[in-house]
Amino acid sequence: MGGPAGGPGVEPDSTAATITRSDRMGRSSYAAEPGEHHAAEPGGHRGAEPADYRAAFAVARTGMALLGPDGTVLAANAALARLLGTPLERMVASDARLLLGSARDPHTDAAFDAVVTGRRRRLRCTRHLTRADGTELRAELTLARTDTRPLLLTVEDVGERDALRRELRHLRMHDPVTRLPNRALFFERLAEACERAPERGTGRIGLCYLDLDGFKAINDTLGHRVGDELLAAVAGRLLTCAGPGGHLTARLGGDEFALLLRDSTGTGQATELAEAVLASFQRPFEVAGQRLAVSASIGVVEREAQGTSPTGLMQAADTTLYWAKDDGKGRWTLFDPERNEHRMTRQSLSSTLRQAVERGEFVLDYQPLVALDTGDLRGVEALVRWEHPHFGRLAPNRFIGLAEEDGSIVQLGRWVLAESCRQARAWQEERPGTPLVVSVNVAVRQVWDSDLVADVAAILDETGLPPHLLQLELTESAVMGSAGRPLQALHALHEMGVRIAIDDFGTGYSNLAYMSRLPVSALKLDGSFVQGFRSAEHPNPADETIVEALVDLAHRLGLTVTAECVENADQADRLRRIGCDTGQGWHYSRPVAAASISRLLN
């Protein structure tokens, strides 16, 4: 007999079933014999003596009782008597509901009655019981029907178990060195704060994520014991700073700590907390008889909790902590969405550079190099652009630095070189009588990380472009001090007939004497010199004198000179008078597609 949803019932070999089967085999009464306080006489499996089961019932550590069809106690064991502080003789024939106090709980009482009347097979619950002496205990009660009339009641004290669980959880959720909440507990509280903050208080949340500057050096030189003592001391100061506001302080691992503002009143509160932490670190730490100075970098994030996830908040805090370290350490930095967007864009571009070359997302524009004396087109500089599917057309300053960092500049540079030579050869075939030099920028990493000489030779051979119509531009700082492989590459390219130009000349070493020993054909004056030329009404003699001297020295060394960033006719005229050979800039043309250069040739 069982209720519709009362639980799984009791297994056939449960204690109650065994006891009642044994009783049918032996005696039929549940009354205890004189001297016995277990009113049932347990029996057992076939062949077992009833006394064996009566003994097991009596010595069981779990409180147990058999109940009659009206819920009265037919038998109980000594464990139950000790648990409730009630003598066995007083329990027998008493109402179990009154004994357990379930009558005071309508819900439990109804479920208890459902099992007693057969509408439910099993009841299991945890509740507080009152002992005979008035003390309370937390117990787990189980009432189950057996395959015969008696019901089996078990009562187990779970207070110690719960206390042990709490202790184990505390150990699992706290850092043993600092006694602070650890990463697991911090993220648990952070998730809870993100979930509940929109419904209470200010609806905002703040986070100070800090990392000790120079801790590794202390740990490595003085040992881990001193390092651990320092971490404990740091934890103490953080608690002092965060305590008045009730902010959670946690150690996330290593020398990383976090302070969580669960009901932030605004950015000011979060930054003031960060300031307080930095101020507290101004005093040296007394550790193991030594005075140790340590600073911290702090990333501060404060925002509305609505729509904020723990992962998103920690990512923002981690990024901001990196900014604080990058900005000089020993400071706090507030999360800046615009700066983060730039970082995310940079990261996105960096992660797709190599694939972009393979997908053909790059194109070339060309800017004319014009003879200052005649106005004739002498050459073009190839300038790469990235036609990004998401960010649109990107100028070189958005991705060249990234390409140099991750090494993809080698692959990209090879493509630029090949495409430039292919186009220059096409122009030569269109106008055989108008030699047009194509100038291509080469990064230092291309010289070191690839066989530039072999690449250039193969591309010239493949495209059919004469070597003297190719000019490779390297920055002044890259060429100065060249030795070993770079210098060998420059000489090999020069012997091949390829022109070598120094780009942005005048911003670095400006060592013309050294360059006299390099196979250089041309100088490209940095645009800052030309931009320093004022109008004829407001001349700047110093700028003109410097450029004139550079041009004169370059010519004496057999080098041609190109002025960059020529923006107006006055600048072009003054450069022509000084003796500069060619000019490049918006005065002549912006960088344009290859088809526009073809029209200029015609």
How would you summarize what this structure contains?
Residues 203-337 form the GGDEF domain. InterPro entries: Biofilm_reg_signaling, EAL_dom, EAL_sf, GGDEF_dom, Nucleotide_cyclase, PAS, PAS-like_dom_sf, Rev_trsase/Diguanyl_cyclase. Helices cover 44% and strands 21% of the residues.
Can you give keywords for this protein?
602 residues; alpha/beta; Beta-Lactamase; Alpha-Beta Plaits; TIM Barrel; eight-stranded mixed β-barrel; GGDEF_dom; PAS domain S-box-containing protein/diguanylate cyclase (GGDEF) domain-containing protein; Rev_trsase/Diguanyl_cyclase; Biofilm_reg_signaling
How many domain regions? Answer: 3
CATH superfamily of the largest domain: EAL domain
Helix content: 40-55%
Discrete helix count: 24
Oligomer: single chain
- Enumerate the strands of the largest sheet in spatial order, edge to edge or round the barrel: 13-14-16-17-18-19-20-21
Gap between N and C termini, in Å? Answer: 104 Å
In the CATH hierarchy, the architecture of the largest domain is: Alpha-Beta Barrel
Q: Could you say what the CATH topology of the largest domain is called? A: TIM Barrel
Largest sheet: 8 strands, mixed, barrel
Q: Beta-strand percentage?
A: 15-25%
According to CATH, what is the class of the largest domain?
Answer: Alpha Beta
The mean pLDDT is 84
Structural class per helix/strand content?
Answer: alpha/beta
Number of distinct beta strands: 21
What's the shape?
elongated
Rg, nearest Å:
43 Å
Low-confidence stretches: 1-50
